[in-house]
Design brief:
CATH architecture of chain A: Orthogonal Bundle
Order of helices and strands of chain A: HHHHHHHHH
Number of strands of chain A: 0
Helix content of chain A: 55-70%
Largest sheet of chain A: none
Oligomer: homodimer
Number of helices of chain A: 9
Number of domains of chain A: 1
DNA sequence: TGTACATCAGTGAACGCGCGTTCACTGATGTAC
DNA sequence: TGTACATCAGTGAACGCGCGTTCACTGATGTAC
């Protein structure tokens, strides 16, 4: 069979998106090549027509997870005045919805310690992607916004990571609500 | 060779402590049975004289990590008045020392998302161990202390997890310092 | 006191399985002549 | 217009390796008689 010119690109993209989902659900060591290919409607052998190694897929899939959740937030920010955007970000990040669906949520909340153990190039890339959010943070100066970004982003990611450990849904809700209240009243 | 009565207990304990260290350094899927046994001065085969499975070791090693870092904090709290203890905890948790040495630090900062994906019994156990820290938190009522615990503990764990991703030591320091200042001035 | 046997933490080779990677092959379409 | 060949995404079996687990064995000491 011969395919349209963009066929291969689309297939590759589909593999990366499926990997990004599985990664956030199962962790960096979770999904095998075969399982990602199967989820993409393909068989193992074809994998190396698209990627040089599993590592290459991993790096792209982590970044893909970032793009996806960035996109998701950005679209919900359309009608919110610039000065209030940080509040909307907090409400989305600390929602039960986000907490309950790691596979489509923020990769930092789902993978932070595993990314910290990854190789330098991946850490560097992710560190860069995170910083995109500085501009939405509250504060009059760039330095202030960076400090608030560090505080708000860390606090939110920690809250969601830990909420996901808790076995009692009520505890989970209380944790998320506590952090939401705290952050919304702190800046 | 015949050993003293406590020999086996001590050996088992040594294995668990080595596993606890390796786990925090390499992640839940990191260390193999052979590597933990080697670090303990033993060979693979003997492992099953002490544990029914690798899973059993994992569960104990995570809990062990908790005991160790609890012990470490508690000892540094000896001469601090009860009302100021939460501040001392924050200073320890957000220190460069803690950030730079995951292998002997808080298991939540090193493993949160992986624990969240672990089986129910482990999550339950860890959730229980975390709550031991509620009593040290600021606040006049139990409800208040629990809310502050959620906020402070999540914020600290998130900060350390994310700081460990950052490749620039200066960024790392600024993140930790920002969170330290924020928390110390918030309660 | 001496001999035969039991005990048990630890050894290290072997087994089985899953996983990343390789490879010869397929089959539909495009191209050369 | 027809035939031979090239292309290339995808297939699925096979390979090699690491890892969890099993197992027969070791060797020092305790116990029975």
């Amino acid at each position: 069979m011969r395919y349209e010119p963009e066929h291969k690109t689309r297939t590759r993209d589909r593999i990366v998106r499926n990997a990004a989902r599985k990664l956030r659900a199962e962790g960096l060591g979770g999904p095998g090549v075969a399982s990602v290919m199967k989820a993409s409607g393909l068989t193992v052998g074809g994998f190396y027509k698209h990627f040089r190694s599993k590592d290459e897929l991993l790096a792209e899939a982590i970044a893909q997870g970032f793009s996806e959740s960035s996109e998701k937030i950005r679209s919900s920010l359309q009608n919110v005045p610039h000065a209030d955007r940080w509040k909307e970000i907090i409400r989305w990040y600390l929602s039960a919805e986000h907490c309950d669906h790691p596979e489509v949520g923020c990769p930092v909340a789902a993978l932070a310690p595993e990314i910290a153990r990854a190789k330098f190039s991946i850490r560097k890339r992710i560190a860069g992607l995170m910083k995109e959010w500085v501009e939405f943070m509250p504060g009059p100066t760039a330095g202030e916004r960076e400090r608030n970004f560090f505080v708000i982003f860390s606090a939110m990611a920690g809250a969601v990571s830990i909420a996901r450990i808790l076995t009692e849904p009520a505890d989970r809700q209380r944790l998320l609500a506590s952090m939401r209240d705290h952050l919304l009243h702190s800046f």
